[in-house]
Amino acid sequence: MELKSLDQIKDEYFGVKGTPDRDRFERELEALCIGVQIRNARQKKEMTQAQLAERIDKKRTFISKVENDGGNLTLKTLIDIVERGLGGKLNIEVQI
């Protein structure tokens, strides 16, 4: 059995970079990673979803959705979650 790299597997299942299916997969993966980072930060601060939601004037179900799939976040909401809710600092990197 031949071992394949992660990029080879993504190419096989989602198409090569630049194709619509691959682009959609990469965006959804990034959203999921954001959700996981928010969950990890919240848990590290020993906060419940309800406590985080209260700090940013949202419902607990909204925080759950964000943590589970990254949700469809605006930049403003992401800043609110990280800075107001978690007391952190959001850094964004643009790569070209």
UniProtKB/TrEMBL annotation:
Write down what this protein is called.
Answer: XRE family transcriptional regulator
> Organism's domain of life?
Bacteria
Molecular-function GO terms, alphabetical: DNA binding
> A Pfam family for this UniProt protein?
HTH_3
Instruction: Name the InterPro entries on file.
Output: Cro/C1-type_HTH, Lambda_DNA-bd_dom_sf
CDD domains from the xrefs? HTH_XRE
Q: Where is the HTH cro/C1-type domain?
A: 38-83
